[in-house]
Amino acid sequence: MKVKLMYYHESIDSKSKIFPVKIILHDKAANVPKHWHRSLEISYTYQGSIPDFTIAGKHYSTRPGTILVVNSNEIHSVFFPKTKKRQDSLALSLIFPYPFLMKIVPNYRYRRYEIPDKELLTANN
């Protein structure tokens, strides 16, 4: 019997031994389907906006300077409605692989990182 997964699992690996973090530059507005990974992800919107960045069922809209944190195993996605005019957007994702975090953060598997008010944490603060 085949089992269809509701969300896909993304395996994160960094090739660098010096800075073992996967860096993704998102230079075009694009939808990212619901997925999860054991890694910790920090997303920074540099230019433009993301109208619907969903993390663990909560919806956020970003603007330049917004920082979002995606904890291990949280389902997350990015959605741009067809009715919204897509602007030139530029965002950065830093993804810290789980094995790396387990080495440097004591008891990482039991930790969660939260920004009390996601609107308060921006690059300007």
Short structural description:
By secondary structure, the chain is mostly beta strands. The chain has one helix spanning 98-104, and strands at 8-9, 22-26, 32-36, 40-47, 50-55, 58-62, 67-70, 76-79, 90-96. Residues 1-5 have low confidence and may be disordered.
Write the layout of secondary structure elements.
Layout: E1 8-9, E2 22-26, E3 32-36, E4 40-47, E5 50-55, E6 58-62, E7 67-70, E8 76-79, E9 90-96, H1 98-104
Parallel strand pairs: 1-3
Antiparallel strand pairs: 2-9, 3-8, 4-7, 4-9, 5-6, 5-8
Give an overview of the whole structure.
- This protein is mostly beta strands.
- The chain has one domain (19-110): Sandwich (Jelly Rolls), CATH 2.60.120.10.
- It is built from one helix and nine strands; from the N terminus they run E-E-E-E-E-E-E-E-E-H.
- The chain has one helix at residues 98-104, and strands at residues 8-9, 22-26, 32-36, 40-47, 50-55, 58-62, 67-70, 76-79, 90-96.
- The strands form two sheets. The chain has a five-stranded mixed beta sheet, with no helix packed on it. It has a four-stranded antiparallel beta sheet with strand order 2-9-4-7.
- A hairpin with a 2-residue loop joins strand 5 and strand 6.
- The longest helix has 7 residues, at 98-104.
- The radius of gyration is 15 Å and the shape is globular.
- The model is unreliable at 1-5 (pLDDT under 50).
Enumerate how many helices there are, as a single number. 1
- Give the proportion of residues in helices: under 10%
In CATH, the homologous superfamily goes by the name Jelly Rolls
Content-based structural category: mainly beta
